[in-house]
Amino acid sequence: MPSLEYEFTYRAALNPLIDIGAGPYGNRIVGEVIGGDFSGPRLKGKVLSGGADWALVGADGRLRIDVRLQLLSDDGAAIYLAYYGILEFNEKMQQALAQGGGTEFADHYWRTNPRFETGHPKYAWMNHGVFIGEGRMLPGRIAEYRVYRVS
Predict the structure, then answer these.
(1) Distance between CA atoms of 36 and 23, rounded to whole angstroms?
(2) For every one of its 151 residues, what pLDDT tens digit does the chain have, with 9 covering 90 and above?
(3) Which of 18, 19, 54, 85 has its CA 20 to 30 A from that of 150?
(4) Which of 103, 108, 129, 110 is nearest to 7 (CA)?
(5) What is the pTM assigned to this prediction?
(6) Are strands 78-88 and 62-73 parallel, antiparallel or unpaired?
(7) 136 φ, ψ (degrees, to nearest 5)
(8) Which residues, in sequence order, are bridge partners of residue 102?
(9) What is the pLDDT of residue 4?
(10) How close are the terminal C-alpha atoms of the chain, in Å?
């Protein structure tokens, strides 16, 4: 039976969301990442600016997450992070985004499946693992995720 092993927590600060509007695939919103940090037992460092979530809000009230961003470990390793996921865009989440407030992990269903790429030998284990994440909002438009490796 697989189990989950905690790897790290990361926080990504976001610019105000850009509402692209209703298109052929749903209502697109973009959340630009402007920085952040990550820390866990095996690695820590910074979330770099330049990434974003290119999410779609469906008629079912769920947000289809589509994130790509860059991490830089404290020892200089560049790590690419991409993930899809589902966020229940419920009243608590909408209120947090509108007012700059926070949510708790139990307030909504917010799950992701992170994938990592790096050429740094110390972090090669990230290239070969299966990971899941759970998210919440912190005050000030900061998305926080706990990331686990499936063993």
Answers:
(1) 30
(2) 999 999 999 999 999 989 999 999 889 999 999 999 999 999 999 999 999 999 999 888 899 999 999 999 999 999 999 999 999 989 998 888 888 899 999 999 999 999 999 999 999 999 999 999 999 999 999 999 999 999 9
(3) 54
(4) 129
(5) 0.93
(6) antiparallel
(7) -155, 165
(8) none
(9) 98
(10) 9
pLDDT at 66: 98
User: How, if at all, do strands 115-117 and 142-150 pair?
Assistant: unpaired
Q: Which residues are paired to 117 by β-bridges?
A: 80
- 4-150 belongs to which CATH class? mainly beta
| Residue of 15, 13, 76 whose CA lies nearest to 47 | 13
Domain extents for the chain? 4-150
Please state the three-class secondary structure of 72-130 as a single string. EECCCCEEEEEEEEEEECCHHHHHHHHHCCCCCHHHCCEEECCEEECCCHHHHHHHHCE
**Nearest alpha-carbon partner for 7 in 123, 138, 139, 140:** 123
Residue 23 to residue 34: CA distance in whole angstroms: 26
Q: Taking the CA atoms of the chain, what radius of gyration do you get in angstroms?
A: 15
